[in-house]
Structures are given as C-alpha cells and as structure tokens.
Amino acid sequence: MKKNSIFNSVSIKLGLLFSSIFLSLLLILGAILYGVFTNLFVDFVTKDLLVRGGNHAKALASDFSQETIRHVLSMEKGSTARVVITDANQKLIGSSEPMDADMQNHLLKLKNQTLNKIIDKDWKNHQYMVTISTIEKNKGYVYMFYPSNVLREMDLVLKILILAASFGTIFIALGLIGILSRRLTNPLLIMKDATNRMALGKYQQQIPAKGNDEIAQLANSIQQLGEKLQSYEDTRNEFLNAVSHELRTPLTYIKGYSDILNKGIIKSETEQKEYLQIIHNEAKRVAFLVDDLFEMSKLQVGEFTLHKEDTDVQSLLEKVIEIFKPAAAEKGLKLNARLKEKIPKLIIDAHRMEQVLYNLIENAVKYTEHGAVTIRTSTQKEWIGIEISDTGIGIPSQDLSKIWDRFYRVDKSRTRKTGGTGLGLYIVKQIIEAHNGRIEVRSTENTGTTFTLFLQKSRKVAHQGRKTK
Ligand code: ADP
Questions:
Q1: Which of 138, 259, 377, 397 is the most buried (most CB within 10 A)?
Q2: What is the pLDDT of residues 355-412, one digit of tens each?
C-alpha cells in the first residue's frame, strides 16, 4: 500500500505547483523590471548631465568671465550633480563641491578637442558617472559628476521593494491556492467516501455537486452509476424471484405426479398417461425457461452467432401465427394476419427471427384479454416492416423505454400471473440489431400496443459471429 504522506494530497501538490509557477514568474518579472528601471534611470541621468553640461559650456563660451563661472558653479550647488570647470589645459578653474581624488582622476588629458560625451556611466564600480562638454573657441571644459551612491541607494530600495512584493504576492497566492484547492479536493473526498460506500453495496448515494464544471459532472456521473447499479441489483433480485417461482411451480408438479406414479397408487392406464403428459409438459416449461436463460447469458458473454440463409419471411410468419391460433382462440381473441404484399426473401438467421416473431406474438396474445392481435407486413424501398399490434392492456409511457432492458417487467404482479421473466424483448432487440434492423414500439394503456420491426431488404451481412456487449 502507498504511504499516506501529505504529498499524496492533491491540494498540497497543486499548491506547490502553483506557488512555484507564481514565484518563478514573479522573479522573472522582477528581474526584468529591475533591469529596465535601472538602465532607464542611468540613461536619463547621463543625458541630463550632458544637456546641463552643454548649457553651462554654451553660457561660458559667450562670456568666460569670473562672474559667469561663479554663476554656473552656484547653479549646481543645491543639486545632486557636481560641476567642474577647467581651462583648455585641464587646469581647474572652479568646482561646485570640493574635488576628491576620484573626481581628479576623471579629468582627461585633452587639448583643443571639441567634445560633448559621457566619460563614465559605470555606476556599479565607480564613484561617479561623468560627462564632458567643451567650451567653444578652446576656452576650456565643463565636467559634470553624478555620485553613484545615489543610484546604489535607489538600487537597494528597488530590490527590497521587488522582494517584498514577491513575498507578499506569494503569501496571497498561497492563501488563494489553499482556498481553491480545498474547493477542488473536498468534493473529491466526498466522492471517494461515496464510492467506498458503493463498494460495500450501498449503491444509491447523494453526492452534493455545485455548478456544472467537470467535478460536478463527475459527481453526477457517480450518482447516476449508483442509481443504475441499484436498479440492476433490484431487477436481478426480482429476476431471481421470478425464475425461482417459474421453476418451483413446474417442479412441484413434476415431483407430485412422479411421487404418485412411483407409489403405484394409480392403476388406470389412461390416468397414468395423463399424469405422464403433465410431467412432460412441465419439464418442457422448465426447459424453455432454461433455454431463455442460456440465450441471455450467451448474449452477455458475446457468443451470439448468426447463421444466415435465404429465408422466406412470409412463411416464417405464417408458421408462427399458426402456433398461436389455439392460444388466441382459447382467450376468445381474433388473430388477424394481414400479409397483403409478398415479402421478398431475406438473408437472415431464420431460427433467431422465428424466435423474435414468436416472442412478439406471444406477448401480444399474453397481454390481451379482449379484441384482436393483428399482424401486418409492408415493403418499402430498402426495408420490410412487420407490425404486431394488439388491443391489450398496453404499456405505461414511463415504462416504454425500459422494456428492452434485461429482466424488466412492467407490472410484476401482472407478469407473475402471465409468467414472464422480462428477457423476451431484450433478446428480441439484440437479435434485430444483430441483423442491422430496428424495432419500435407504440402503446396506449388499456388500448393496445404495436411493435414494428424493420429489416433491411438486400443487405447481406458477412459476419457470422456477432460480439455483443
Ligand atoms: P416477459 O417475459 O415479462 O413478457 P418481455 O421482455 O417479453 O418479458 O416484456 C417485458 C415487459 O413488457 C413485459 O413484462 C410486459 O409488461 C411488457 N410487454 C411486452 N409486450 C407487451 C404487450 N404486447 N402488451 C403489453 N405489455 C407488453
């Protein structure tokens, strides 16, 4: 058995997955933002230095007097940047702040050059970002210095902000994921408990499902599965009851009459023959029932084999109708055969088709007390139709779709009397479908029922062994 560690929980797995995706995305986004921001800022600062240095140089070019120099130096006094003015030989004329060694080192060895450029923007390794602008007519140079530590401080603040935002988002994400995962896994746990109970035989389970998402659909499917299983269980039990009842009655007769014969109480030969006939008839009934059961089990394991041959459906129909004439007459029913058109021969399994017609006509006679059972045939372009209608008790509309199910009987009490197992129509449908045909039913309670089956005319089905589900 698998160990029941917390990492087996879907919520933990999902939580870990989502938070690591979140975290990676945030870090990538943070790194991009950080890079863009610092680069933009450095660009902005250096360009600003160039513009200001250029402006100072222009002012000094038009008037390179002590007063203008003082004015330029005093302009930069309050700002973060520092300005340094040299003559054409790099001799210091004035600076807005006292010169330190690093500033000193940045003064270039230039002569008679016209320049307006950035000398240093490496704020990470150097103390200043520096630009130089030439004062026209070879009067001197204006250097602008921007202390790197201002940028480093900003850089630190930016990193702290990104990290704080990342952690904050992770905590919020974890919280949300926790809530979401619980919403996801709680219904799964409910379904697990429900299926465990179903495994113990409590098939009908109420699984609360909100909405119509995949989880709610799964919950509904499990519930429907349970209902289906329950209905199978019920019909199985009813079927077993019906079968045991069906078997018990003839077996009681067989046992009773054979006991009497065994004890030699009956001397008259005619009476003995009569009793033997009863035993024979009852044994035949049991054999029919066993045949039906066998047929059904074959349908279920997929050993349903069709033996197709050229078949005269018309004579087949007439033969089956003939069989039911006595039974219909006994109940005072008319058995009408309206076989107007001559049906063409079909390539079908004659024995199985006889079984189908037998079942349908037997039902019609069985479930009709007054009136008539009428059999009609019709031919269409590609199909032939066989219609068996009766004026019997009918089938309630809510049962119409279920009569094809195994063991399904409409009213258990009425079929107990008429003696059915609920297998007939299931077998009929399987046989018709194996022939690529179809069967339909129309019925009104207490008025009558009509079964119509359609068979394809010239379709030669090649397969012999049909696998059923
Ligand atoms: P059964 O052996 O009980 O007759 P079937 O599968 O042949 O089983 O039929 C299923 C149920 O359909 C029957 O129990 C019966 O209630 C109903 N049924 C079938 N044919 C008719 C019919 N012609 N008239 C009324 N009810 C019918």
A1: 377
A2: 899 999 999 999 999 999 999 999 888 899 999 999 999 999 999 999 998 778 787 5
Would you say the CB of residue 424 lies under 6 angstroms from ligand 1? yes
- Indicate the fold that domain 203-300 takes in CATH: Helix Hairpins (1.10.287)
Most ligand 1 atoms within 8 A of CB, residue of 409, 428, 441 to mutate? 409
**Fold of domain 7-153:** Beta-Lactamase (3.30.450)
Phi/psi region, residue 332 (left: phi>0; alpha: psi -120 to 50; beta: rest), is: left
CATH number at 302-468: 3.30.565.10
Q: Which ligand 1 atom is the nearest neighbour of the CA of 393? A: 25
Helix axes 66-77, 10-62, angle to 10 degrees: 160
Cα distances from 71 to residues 29, 85, 107, 199, in angstroms, run 46, 12, 22, 95
DSSP secondary structure letter of residue 345: P
Considering the chain, tell me which residue range(s) the CATH 3.30.565.10 domain(s) occupy: 302-468
Cβ burial, residue 226 (10 Å; 0-12/13-18/19+): buried
> How far does the centroid of ligand 1 lie from the alpha carbon of residue 360, in Å?
9
For a pocket test of ligand 1, which of 335, 363, 401 has the largest count of ligand atoms closer than 8 A to its C-beta? 363
Among 68, 112, 63, CA closest to 90:
112
pLDDT single digits (tens) 106-161: 888 777 777 888 988 888 888 999 999 999 887 899 999 999 998 899 889 888 88
Q: What is the pLDDT of residue 416?
A: 45
pLDDT at residue number 361: 95
DSSP string, 175-222: HHHHHHHHHHHHHHHHHHHHHHHHHTT---------SSSHHHHHHHHH
- Give residues with Cβ within 8 angstroms of 456, minimum separation 6: 382, 383, 435, 436, 437
Query: Order of strands across the sheet with 372-379?
Result: 334-338, 372-379, 383-390, 448-456, 438-444
